[in-house]
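Data availability excerpt. The first of two example chains:
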Amino acid sequence: FVKSADELFGPITTIRHPRSPTRHIPWSAFTIGTADWECVNAARDIISDANYIQQYFSSELQPTLWRVIPAIEELQAAWEAKHEDPKYTLFKPAIVQGLEKVNKYYRRFDEKPVYVLALVLHPYYNLDYIKMAWGGPEEQEAECAAGNLNAVDWHDEALKIVEKTMQDY
């Protein structure tokens, strides 16, 4: 394949364009330096975060719904850390867009009580996790004092979701 392509178009080091002179590029132009490899590895690190989280949901034998919220939070934390790390400066715009997408779907969890129920019913996470990770009345009060008038007592919200579900079913 490569041989026939070379015969038709010339080697990769030769650029031919109609009505333009043929240009020859030295092979040294195709070398990847240390700084280039650092960029490649940094990009791989960012993509690896998402791949690692995606693997949480690759189970045919166990339910995985309870993993959704902790997994999204873990991905968000990893990318927020990379956003602040100077090593990833080149990728800041992509990280910001990734975080915006993650936050878009994270906000949608508020509309779907099944994710909260999956956490509450899980023996490890239960309501204690919700209070620890998202806050209870003390955190709501502190946020309100700091000016966030839309602060929510997530522990109480989770209890309401459980109670409503129990009434419905």
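And the second chain:
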Amino acid sequence: MECRESAVSYLSWALIIAGVAYLWHQTRHHTQYGRYVNPATGRCCPASVGWFLQELPAFLLPLLLLLTEEPAGTGTRAGRTLLLCTFMLHYFHRSFIYAFLTRGRPIPLLIVLHATIFCSLNGFLQGHHLLYCVQFEATWLTEARWAAGFLLFVAGFTINIHSDHILRSLRKPGEIVYKIPYGGMFEFVSGANFFGEIVEWCGYAVAVWSLPAFAFAFFTVCSIGPRAYQHHRDYHRRFEDYPHSRRALIPFIL
């Protein structure tokens, strides 16, 4: 398969435009998930099923590309494969581990549908671009930018998983009460899990250093950044003793 440069460019810019539009939408409306779900929204599915279905395409599509196609072009295949595997690692965890550990509320089917479409398109975009379009020099492994991006990805991935664990620990199975999270990055920000995921994909973008990767990181910031701010306001509304030193998303700043 040849690199479809026009398709890669169109999808990347579509992510950027969609990110701006979604950011604008979230400044005016809550995304209908979790604590913000309106019972009148419509049909919902269990959180575990919704997370599994919507995240799975972003793991399966790159995996199929990796297993069934021979990458074209020059450069070191190991670098491209390693970076694609970091992308797939996140979605493997989301699909097969996080989905079956979550104790979240049911998810509206419309949200699941939109997320499935996004994960399918983005999974194809990142997989196709890394396997067929990116070219690395033979010295890619010694580049400081690659190392910095990879370390950021690992740090963000770790923060994200640890923050999700803290949130799960706040509830017993079947509980729907909300409590103040403590520990880890929650000592600094209300949206520690969102902060971790943003760091994760910014690190991925730095390591890959391409338009599709930066478009994905930008969309991530636009889509989950506002949720951290919404959670921050909700915590302050629910709890009079909520720590005032915490920021919403970026420690000590925002």
